[in-house]
Amino acid sequence: MIRKITFGALWLGFIIYAFFFAPPDQPDTFDLIKDLSTGQWQGINPLIIALFNIMGIWPMIYSCLVFIDGRAQKMPAWPFASISFGVGAFALLPYLALREPNQKFPGSKNAFLKILDSRLTGIALTVATVILIAYGVGQGNWGNFVQQWQTSRFIHVMSLDFCLLCLLFPALLGDDIARRDIKNPQLFWLIGLIPLFGPLIYLCIRPPLQEAADKIIQSQQQSAIN
């Protein structure tokens, strides 16, 4: 119950801050979002371009855990994960508040879950993130970014959303580690707690999720050996 109240309060607090305390909307916000979404990046600070695109990678990172976690939840995970591509933590916080601890994976993986569970997916997301970070940091204007963070609600809230997604990842990490029977959980926890690149590295090196049928066969083989 404490966990549910905490995530619920965080969600409500984030909404209140975003709409009542963040800097005001700028007249060109809609045009900026449209240009960022359609790749018309001329004249836009590369730091903002990188951040905007990384905010599309974060939901993919979470999807690699949420869809698997949601298999054993009473509520479907896909609405929260899907909406998070547009509003980030605003959509994921309600899921974290409503979900129950779950360290088992029932049934089998379909084609979609196999993609999310693949290390190649983690590698692809990591490569894309490295490229974006290198582009943003290498060519971006930090002074301009700080100014826009202080004056634009869109940039301000998007930046806070990024930070919040970094902080929330461990809320799903523990169950995912247990679900995979990882023998050295301390190492994976250490990696997962590193902002952004920790979750990406975790997706690259975590062992594949065993399906229920595979666990039964493995258990029978172990019993036969003993």
From TrEMBL:
Signal peptide region: none
Residues annotated as transmembrane: 7-24, 44-68, 80-98, 118-142, 154-174, 186-205
Keyword vocabulary terms for this entry: Membrane, Transmembrane, Transmembrane helix
Transmembrane helix keyword on record: yes
Organism the protein comes from: Brasilonema octagenarum UFV-OR1
Domain of life: Bacteria
UniProt name for this protein: DUF2834 domain-containing protein
